[in-house]
Amino acid sequence: MGKIYFPENMVIYKFLLSSPQPSSYVTMAKETTNKRKASRAPSSKKKKVVKPPTPPSSPGASDDEVDSGSEVGDSDAASSSASGDEMKKFTDSNNKWLKMKGDTSGSDSDSDSEASISQIERDAMILDKEKEEEAKEFEQDLQRQRQDQTKIFHLPTQEELEEDEDRVVPPTEIRERVEEIIEVMQDFKRRREEGRSRSEYMDQLECDLSEYFGYLPELIGLFLKMFSPSEALEFLDASDKPRPLVIRTNTLKARRKDLAQALIKRGVNLDPLANWSKVGLKIYESTVPIGATPEYLSGHYMLQSAASMCPVMALEPQPGEKVLDMSSAPGGKTSYIAQLMKNQGIIVANDLKVERQKATVGNLHRLGVKNVITCCNDGKNFPKVMGNFDRVLLDAPCSGLGVISRDQSIKVQRTVKDIERTAHLQKELLLAGIDSLNAKSKTGGIMVYSTCSVSVQENEQVVQYILGKRDVKLLDTNLKHGKPGFQRYQERRFHPSMQLTRRFYPHTHNMDGFFVAKFQKLSNKERVPQGEEAEEEVSASDDDDDEGVQMDVEVSDSESDVEVSSEKKALRAKFMSGVVLPEDDESLDSDEEEAKEEAPPKKQRWEKIKKGKKKKQEKGKKEPKSKQVAGKPKGKEQGGGKKKEKK
Q1: Inter-residue contact 284 to 270 (CB < 8 Å)
Q2: Which residues are documented as binding site?
Q3: Least confident interval from 133-137, 208-212, 425-429
Q4: According to a count of CB atoms within 10 Å of the terminal CB, is the N or C end of the chain lower?
């Protein structure tokens, strides 16, 4: 048998030599030893040329040949141990798969590890490059922001604007100018152009916003007074976007969970509305029309916006109460009230127009409501029709500035004068609603006022007017969402309890613009107008004159003052009807001398009162006792005298 280079484990190869084995095993052992030596040897050393061993001639070999083979194996073992000592210097825990940079030798396993290492390194290189690019972009953004902050915006002059009238200005250019003006307004001292005032920037912003969004300039001016420029831009953007479709589950016929499962089976993509609602569902997509499903036709749900649910939730009707809905069409809020009352009690659904009440009746029949009485009366005169309600809901007619996303014509049709007219109508309806309440109700005496507008004239100013005219107070609406009402608006200051009211905006709550206020009636008394409201209706001098008129009416009971009493009764009738008493022509005279000589009407009336009293006293002294008894008896003595005479 020829010489063989044995590895460190000599026992295995001795066993192979001692037992008769085919030559393939020996060659395999030789290849493995060569691979191990090549992998352990450093790249600087030269590879040893090993002579190919000759296969054994016979199974039994001589002892000399075995000894010579062992000597050669010992020498190889020594060389391998020396190379192992050199490799001990590299003590990395990952030395099994790491490789030196200069080492090009290796086996197939090493080539596989090289491929895996290169992929990992490649990914790391990509990540490093991305981080470097992000850092560069961040630095560039910082530089741009610093330049923009220090840059002075050039506001176009009147001449430049006149030149632009001939050409069509693209909307993108107007939008950029709007955003730049808003940035200047946020840091006006540094960014403003010299010689330009704040009013010039605001006028230009109002003009650009009205042109970009298609509003009347006066409406844009109203929004800029209510909001900051940046918030006004957000409000206008949100008003152009449609609100999500919302349905309300009718718990008189179905549960929300069952309804959601039935609609999902029909291909409707929906989610619960919010945490504050237990019956609302928000619909994203639908393969079938929502207003024509079998569930809708059977009355399992009602199409109703999320904002219109809030007034009914604030009203909190209880079963068995008597509730009034002053403007009920088309029946969404009325059916929700019946749903909360569980079809118990009485609900009076009133509306001015008969045509709109047809839709109310149809929806109530479809939803299974059984405790509603519909009527058509003018809400301003409703206390004359019926009263003593426990709760009243007034969703007053308004300008609709909170639902522009539904009706884009509001941008052009509504003006500030229209808002003032609707505010006057809302005051009349709200007074009538409070007069219809029963202040002594054990469970109620509650009224909720709501509008689908965001203007202060239709909301806070109306509530402030009612607080001065009736003995009521504001209560918490118990609505967890929404923003509190304004306590100040420009030069006006409202009652501190105005923060209990709630406002909803499309750009913050993704709902229609809405306002909700909750009143409690304390008594049936009327409050005397105070402050600004008194100046609008009755002046202080007129109030004094009215008191004199009341005194005159009480005094003028005698027959001699028939003419004076008739005049005073007419004045009293005017006062009770709400007409302001006119002043005499003498008070309007501009001549100071004549005004000094002639007494004012107030003093003249008091003189008439005194004269009437004196005449009564004189007649009482001249008339005999019998006539006094025939007139007005003074007390128990006269009554006792009558009884004695009869006996």
Answers
A1: yes
A2: 327-333, 351, 378, 395
A3: 133-137
A4: C
